[in-house]
Fold this sequence. Notes:
CATH superfamily: P-loop containing nucleotide triphosphate hydrolases
Number of domains: 1
Order of helices and strands: EEEHEEHEHHHEHEHEEHH
CATH architecture: 3-Layer(aba) Sandwich
Number of strands: 10
Strand order of the largest sheet: 6-7-8-3-9-10
Largest sheet: 6 strands, mixed
Shape: globular
Helix content: 25-40%
Distance between the termini: 17 Å
CATH topology: Rossmann fold
Radius of gyration: 18 Å
Number of helices: 9
Strand content: 15-25%
CATH class: Alpha Beta
Amino acid sequence: MHVSGLAYAYPDGHQALFGVDLTVPRGERVALLGPNGAGKTTLVLHLNGILEAGAGSVTVAGLPVGPEHLAEIRRRVGIVFQDPDDQLFMPTVREDVAFGPATAGLRGAELASRVHDALARVGMEGHADRAPHHLSFGQRRRVAVATVLAMQPEILVLDEPSSNLDPASRRELADILQQLDVTVLMVTHDLPYALQLCPRSVVLSDGVIVADGSTQELLCDEGLLAAHRLELPFGFDPGSVRVPQR
């Protein structure tokens, strides 16, 4: 994934991005950090064509993000939104996970296999026939991840994946995400989660990238955190954490 000189202004004139450059190699896990209003969501909505660049370009797997490649781009880039209820709308979990592949033309045994595999990857295969609204919030988030995995994306974008999760659900989701063999871009305010899951982090502030490097090194930079309204939990020492290597 390659973003070059990306700029974007909303219709009301608010300039959200000012020439963002970002490259994420295949298989890397990267956290996108920054204060509210930094432009993080605006950036990720460009990755599968939900928003169209005002200037600059976005390329995924060698394909420019634009109308001519939109269907393929949206297969390759899956976005898991912060609220799982924004993605779950069918009567059963099975139907929710099947919706994307079925819309793309998959049928019969191949579709059933795709749905089972996606649910198995998030530990929800035993809930296929349940109504999503009967599941816990953490279970619904895992099903939302499965709906995206069922499309077999190359890039998984996660918007605040740990928000509103209890500690057990937070840990379970981290275990799942660590096992996925896809490129991950994770938007989060949860700095310990970023450190746990993403060896590299990028800090976006006021529409520009102000830091890009080792997550552990960035989180140990007190001046950087303070300047961009990023705060670690009380007593948390990122320098003492054994971090993943990938």
